[in-house]
Amino acid sequence: MASDEWVSASAPYVAPRHNGVSDAWTEESAKRSRKGGQKLAFAGEIEAPPEVAEAFGIPEGASVVARKRVITLDGDPIELTDTYYPASLAAGTALAVPSKIKGGAVTMLAQLGHNPDRIHEAVSARMPSREEQDALHLGSQDPVLILRRVTTDTEGAPIQVDLMTMPARGRHLNYEMQVNR
Amino acid sequence: MTPKAAPESPDGRPLHERIAADLREAIMSGDFEPGGNLPSTEQLKARFEASGATVQKALGLLKDEGLAVGRPGSSVQVRAHRRQIMHPAAYSAPAAPGDTYRWIAEAENRGQAGRSTLREVAEVVPPADVRVALGLIEGERALLREQILYLDDEPCELVKSYYPLELARGTAMMHKKKIRGGTPALLAEAGYLPRRTVDKVSACIATQEQYEALRLPSDLPILRTFRVVLSDDDRVIEVTEMAKAGHLYELQYEY
Fold first, then answer.
1. Range of the domain at B19
2. At which of B78, B110, B130 does a domain end?
3. How far apart are CA B218 and CA B232, in angstroms?
4. Residue B220 and residue A127: Cβ atoms within 8 Å?
5. In which region does residue B182 sit, left (phi positive, over 0), alpha (psi from -120 to 50) or beta (all else)?
6. Do B93 and A171 touch (CB under 8 A)?
7. Do residue B109 and residue B21 come from a single domain?
8. N or C: which end of chain B has fewer CB within 10 A?
C-alpha cells in the first residue's frame, strides 16, 4: 500500500494558510457562491475523550485543548467539528482561548512549528444522538457520518484530532487513489 | 453526559429506541469501554425515567446489534470488538495469480475468517449513478456481479459490481461462478489494469434489500461506498457499490 496514495476533498482544510487569508471553509464556500461560516462553541482545556487519548497516546482523562465548532452553510448548521490538540503543544496558546484565530488554527500550529504531514481518516455512520439532532436540525431517522481525522506532523507526531459529525443526507466524502502497481 | 429522554420528547421514536440510541453513541465513542459494564438497570431506569421493561427492551436492541453482551439478571457488558476497520485501498488492486481475494487475505491478516458468496450475475440496466459513471445511455445494460462478504460467518457487506459489457462479454465474468483472484485479476489479464480509484463515501438508512442481506437487527445506517475504478486513458472498468452495516464498520483512508 505504501506507493498508493489517497487524496481527499478535505485537502484544502488541512493546509496552513498565509497571513491574512480567510479560513479555508469561508473561501471554499465563497467559490460556490454560498456563505460558509462557523461558530465557536467552546475552546479550552478538557479531559481527553477515549478515542482522542488513544490517538495522542496519552492516558484517558489527561488534559487536552479542545475547540468545538458548529460549521454553517448559508446560516444552517451542517457539521459539528470538535478539534483536539495535545496540551503540551496548545495549552497557553491562542488555541486554548475562545476567540477566533486569524487565518485558522492550522496556520497557528504552523507558527508553533508543527506542519501537518500525514492525514489518517476514519469514516463511520450511525443514527444521531438527541444533542446532535438538536444541533444539526435532524430528524431521528437521519443518519450522521462521522469522520475522525488524525493529523501527524513532519516529525510523525500526532498534533491534531478532529471529530466531525455531519448529516449524511446529500453528503459525500471523496477519496481518490492512484494505483501504482 | 447523556441527556434524559423525557417521555414527552419531540423525538417520535419509542422510549426504548431513544435509550438505545443514546447508549449506542456512548459505546461508539468509547465513553463505555469495550469489555466494561454498562450502567445497571436501576441506574438506567433512573437516568431515563423509564420502566425496567423499557430498559430491558433498549438493552435487547444493543445485544441484537452485537454491541452488548450479557444474560438477564447479570450485568450487561460492552462487546470487546466495537468496530471493524476496513482499509478500502486493500481491495482495489488485483490479487497476484493464484492468490485468494485481496479482502479475504486482509481478513486473515486480522485473524478473521473471510468468505464471500456470489449472489447474482446478470445483465441489468444499472441505477442512474452507475449508468452515468459507466458512460452508458439510458436503458443500456451492464454486467452485474453481486456478492455478500462474510467475516466470521456474519454478513458484513453487500457488494454490487458493474462492468461494461464490452469488457465482460466472452469472459468468465459472465458466468455465475467465482473467479480465481477476483474479477480485477481477470481484467488485468485482459490488459485492463486499475490505475485510479475514486471513492465517494456516504451513509443512508438501509434499503429493504440491504436490511435483509446484511441481517440488520434494526433500522441502522448503511455506510455506502460508491467506487469507480479507472484503467489507462481514464477508461472506466468497474463501478462498485458497497454497503456495510454502519454500526459495525469503519473505513480508513490515509493521505
1. 15-78
2. B78
3. 43
4. yes
5. left
6. no
7. no
8. N
Residue B60 sits in the same domain as residue B174: no
Is B7 part of any domain? Answer: no
A131/B219 touch (CB, cutoff 8 Å), yes or no: no
Residue B3 lies in a domain: no
Band (A105; pLDDT cuts 50, 70, 90): confident
pLDDT tens per residue, range A38-84: 889 999 999 999 889 999 999 988 999 999 999 888 888 889 999 99
Shortest Cα distance from A29 to chain B (angstroms)? Answer: 20
Check: pTM over 0.90? Answer yes or no: no
Give the one of A49, A127, A179 whose C-beta lies nearest to B195's C-beta: A179
Distance CA B167, CA B184 (A): 12
CA distances, B75 to each of A69, B44, B82, B213, B230 (Å):
37, 12, 18, 32, 51
For residue A92, the distance in angstroms to the closest alpha carbon of chain B comes to 27
State whether B172 and B196 are in the same domain.
yes
Which pLDDT score, from 0 to 100, does residue A125 have?
87
Contacts of B199 in chain A (CB under 8 A): 174-177
**What's the total number of domains in chain B?**
2
| Contact residues of A toward B, CB < 8 A | 1, 4-8, 11, 49-51, 54, 118-131, 133, 140-141, 143-146, 168-169, 171-179, 181
Question: What letter represents residue A71's amino acid?
Answer: I
Interface predicted TM-score of the whole assembly (ipTM), two decimals: 0.74
